[in-house]
Every structure is written in C-alpha cells, then in structure tokens.
C-alpha cells in the first residue's frame, strides 16, 4: 500500500517540528516544510510528524 504525505503550504508556519521528528521525510526550504518523498510504501515517523505539527499542516493517508 502506498501512503501519501502532504504539507499544506498555506497552513505551514515553518516551525521545523516535522523536520526534527522525521528528518528523512521533511526539510525546511524558504521558511516552509516540504516533503522529500510525497509517496512512501512504509510509514516510519511521518504520522508522528503529522501529530506533532502545531498547526495541522501535514496529512498522511
């Protein structure tokens, strides 16, 4: 099963919590979080990053 990871750029405040929680999947660029791979076969820490996002900008499905 493939999982999709999305960062809502309008909601993102660039706090870096996702990158700190899951550095293999998220990176900060120009003050906003970006997903390194939009689709993954296996989730590792991506859901933790979504839960830890203070503004709910990350969705994992």
Give an overview of the whole structure.
With 61 residues, this protein is α+β, with helices and mostly antiparallel strands. The protein is built from 2 helices and 5 strands; from the N terminus they run βαβββαβ. It has a 3-stranded antiparallel sheet with strand order 4-1-5, covered by helices on one side. A two-stranded antiparallel sheet has the order 2-3. Strand 2 (26-29) and strand 3 (32-35) form a beta hairpin. The mean pLDDT is 97.
Note the main attributes of this structure:
about 60 residues; alpha+beta; Alpha-Beta Plaits; three-stranded antiparallel beta sheet
- What is the SS-derived class? alpha+beta
Kindly provide the name of the CATH class: Alpha Beta
N- and C-termini, Cα separation: 10 Å
- Oligomer state equals single chain
Average pLDDT, rounded to a whole number, is: 97
How many domains would you count in the coordinates?
1
Number of helices: 2
- Give start-end ranges of low-pLDDT stretches: none
Side by side, the strands of the main sheet go: 4-1-5
At the third CATH level, what is the topology name? Alpha-Beta Plaits
Instruction: Find the count of extended strands (DSSP E, 2+ residues).
Output: 5
Q: Helical residue percent?
A: 10-25%
| Largest sheet data | 3 strands, antiparallel
CATH architecture, please? 2-Layer Sandwich
> What shape does the CA trace take?
globular
Strand content: 25-35%
What's the helix-strand series?
Answer: EHEEEHE
Radius of gyration: 10 Å
